[in-house]
Every structure is written in structure tokens, then in C-alpha cells.
Specification:
five-stranded parallel beta sheet; 51% helix; Rossmann fold
């Protein structure tokens, strides 16, 4: 049996109707709830947006650092700021690079990829990306935003894998051919936070275990600590909420490009 409740109309407004009207008036407009962000919270300040034109930025960091979430928020902000942006990812970003990406990240059934093979494949993808996409876009004055770049190689194949930085640098000089990021944002996060953010369907690199990934985080931290001027590698505290982390990104970019 269904029951229907009706509110009878009278000449004077009942306390119940007054309460309902007040609740309706106080509801957020445009279906905005308390958990949604107010308009403009993820926008780029005008001076910063202008300063970023023609720059090459990299979003980098260990798996589970929240980098991908922040990259999307940042790219959405650049669109609202009317900045000409070229978005790339590593490995990949070109037809050849995407083939290399598949080889690097897929799990292998019968043999393990050697560390130096792994490093050189990343560099091969990077070489194609720099020549085919990044360098032409920079010459047009676009802002380049990359999902990973050479810092990943220093952290994963260098600090965690054991290849000396000198060897990585030599290979990078050939691959990048003078194309260098203006700034690399390193998303810094502790192990427990990173583990809680990982997709349970891990790719080959993500599945390498806690000890490996602890070395990766140490490698990224070393890059930030070694950059005494704070211009090449910018540490971003990524342990907070997405709103907090985005605010941290804006702060480090303003220090880098406006101070």
C-alpha cells in the first residue's frame, strides 16, 4: 500500500511551508554541493598564465603521487586561461612512442627486460617526442605540459635501478638534442599515501614492489635537493587534498616564474 502526504493550502503560510521555502532558498545554486569546488578555485592567476606562454613544464613523481589528477586540473585551468597548450606524455606522445610504451609497460611472460634496454627505450621514445612534437611546439610559442620526462629516468632506472647518472645524462643529451624543460614539478608523497592511490591493476613498472618504489621516491627527492637554485626541479607537497596540492602547484610556479 502506498501513502501520499499532502500539504493543504490555507490563507496564511504554515510554519512547515515557511521552513521548506527557507531550505530551498539556502540550497547551493547550479547543483553545487558542499564537496564541489567554488568557481575559479582551480584557475591560473593572470600574471602566471601570461608568464607560462612558451614554457616547457613537466609533471613528474612516483607512482601514486596524484600527478595525473593534478595534471588534468592544470590542463583544464590552462584552457580557461586561453593558453595555447601542447600536452604530451612519456613514454609515448607519438605513433612510434606509443609502440615503445606498450613494450615498456606490458607484463612479459617469458623474459625480463634488461635495465639498460629499458632505459634506452625510454630515451628512444623521448627522442622521437622531442623532435616531432615538443621542439616544433616550443618554436610556435606554445606551453608544453608533459606527463613525465627525463626526471623519471633518473629516479626509476637510476636511483632505483642502479644505472649511474652519468650514463643517463649522456643518453639524454643525445635523445633530447638541447630540448630542456623550464621546470619539472616533482610530486612528493609518502609510501602509505602513494600505495592507497594506486590502481589495483598495476602495469609492469608499478608492480615492482615497495623497496623499489622507496628508492624511486628517494631518487626524486635527491633531484629536488640537488637543485640549489630551485628552478629546474620544483618539489610539490602532494600529501594533501587535490585542492591543497593544486594550491601548492600555483605557489611553486609563481616562485619560479614571477619572483
Amino acid at each position: 500500500m502506498s501513502m501520499k502526504t499532502t500539504i493543504q493550502s490555507t490563507d496564511s503560510t504554515s510554519p512547515l511551508i515557511e521552513k521548506l521555502e527557507l531550505e530551498v532558498k539556502s540550497m547551493p545554486k547550479n547543483n553545487q554541493t558542499d564537496n564541489q569546488l567554488p568557481c575559479g578555485q582551480h584557475d591560473l592567476p593572470a600574471r602566471l598564465a601570461k608568464a607560462l606562454a612558451g614554457k616547457f613544464l613537466v609533471f613528474d613523481g612516483p607512482d601514486g603521487s596524484g600527478k595525473s589528477t593534478q595534471l588534468k586540473l592544470f590542463l583544464d585551468a590552462t584552457k580557461r586561461a586561453k593558453i595555447e597548450v601542447t600536452e604530451v606524455r612519456e613514454p609515448g606522445g607519438t605513433e612510434i612512442g606509443e609502440k615503445i610504451r606498450d613494450a615498456l609497460l606490458e607484463h612479459l611472460d617469458r623474459e625480463e627486460m634488461s635495465l639498460r634496454c629499458e632505459m634506452m627505450l625510454y630515451m628512444a621514445s623521448r627522442a622521437q617526442l622531442c623532435e616531432q612534437v615538443i621542439d616544433p611546439a616550443l618554436k610556435k610559442g606554445n606551453l608544453i605540459v608533459a606527463d613525465r620526462f627525463v626526471a623519471s629516468t633518473y629516479a626509476y632506472q637510476g636511483a632505483a635501478g642502479g644505472i649511474p647518472n652519468e650514463e643517463i645524462e649522456a643518453a639524454a643529451n643525445i635523445a633530447m638534442c638541447g630540448v630542456e624543460p623550464d621546470a619539472t614539478l616533482i610530486f612528493q608523497v609518502d609510501q602509505s599515501t602513494a600505495a592507497s592511490r594506486l590502481n589495483p591493476l598495476l602495469d609492469r613498472m608499478e608492480a615492482k614492489g615497495a623497496i623499489f618504489h622507496a628508492k624511486v621516491r628517494d631518487g626524486y627527492s635527491s633531484l629536488v635537493e640537488s637543485d640549489k637554485d630551485g628552478k629546474r626541479y620544483l618539489g610539490v607537497d602532494a600529501t594533501g587534498t587535490p585542492d591543497d596540492v593544486f594550491a601548492n602547484i600555483i605557489a611553486v610556479l609563481e616562485r619560479r616564474f614571477l619572483d
